[in-house]
């Protein structure tokens, strides 16, 4: 592992928190073999240093009516800062877009979009995606099934 300034205890704390974000400080301290006060100080430092960005609840897409996941590859008409900035500004306003990645390869951007169904994706496409500035080409692929999903980063 690169020198990140994180020691083994920090990594154990991060590993547990990634998988069990609602764990109490007392339980976390016990799991990583620290006193509760020392554990709390470490977690606060990891938050202050920007290692821990935030805490969130992971929702079931099906339970909230967004079971369809669509990956959209977008190629822009140009690569100028103005074109990239305009695209990124606008795509960030679309609530159905969960992720947007600037890519190296065949597409300029890869979006992860959630929808109720194919008709809902058609609405998202018409009202939002097709109106994004600088778009030359767009290719959409529907995920048939999520085989594996995690938000936990490898720490080893």
Automatic annotation (TrEMBL):
HTH asnC-type domain residues: 6-67
Gene Ontology cellular-component annotations: cytosol
Top-rank lineage group of the source organism: Bacteria
Keyword set includes Acetylation: no
InterPro entries hit by this protein: ArsR-like_HTH (IPR011991), AsnC-type_HTH_dom (IPR000485), Dimeric_a/b-barrel (IPR011008), Tscrpt_reg_AsnC-like (IPR019888), Tscrpt_reg_AsnC/Lrp_C (IPR019887), WH-like_DNA-bd_sf (IPR036388), WH_DNA-bd_sf (IPR036390)
GO biological process, one term: regulation of DNA-templated transcription
GO molecular function: sequence-specific DNA binding
UniProt keywords, alphabetically: DNA-binding, Transcription, Transcription regulation
Keyword DNA-binding: yes
Name of the protein in its database record: Lrp/AsnC family transcriptional regulator
Organism: Paroceanicella profunda
């Amino acid at each position: 592992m690169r020198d990140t300034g994180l020691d083994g205890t920090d990594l154990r704390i991060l590993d547990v928190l990634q998988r069990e974000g609602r764990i109490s400080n007392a339980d976390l301290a016990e799991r990583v073999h620290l006193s509760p006060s020392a554990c709390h100080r470490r977690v606060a430092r990891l938050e202050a240093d920007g290692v821990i960005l935030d805490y969130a609840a992971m929702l079931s897409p099906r339970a909230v009516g967004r079971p369809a996941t669509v990956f959209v590859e977008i190629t822009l008409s140009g690569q100028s800062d103005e074109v990239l900035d305009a695209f990124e500004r606008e795509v960030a306003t679309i609530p159905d877009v969960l992720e947007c990645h600037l890519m190296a390869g065949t597409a300029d951007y890869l979006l992860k979009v959630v929808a109720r169904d194919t008709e809902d994706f058609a609405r998202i496409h018409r009202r939002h995606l097709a109106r994004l500035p600088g778009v030359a080409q767009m290719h959409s692929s529907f995920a048939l099934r999520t085989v594996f999903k995690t938000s936990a980063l490898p720490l080893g």
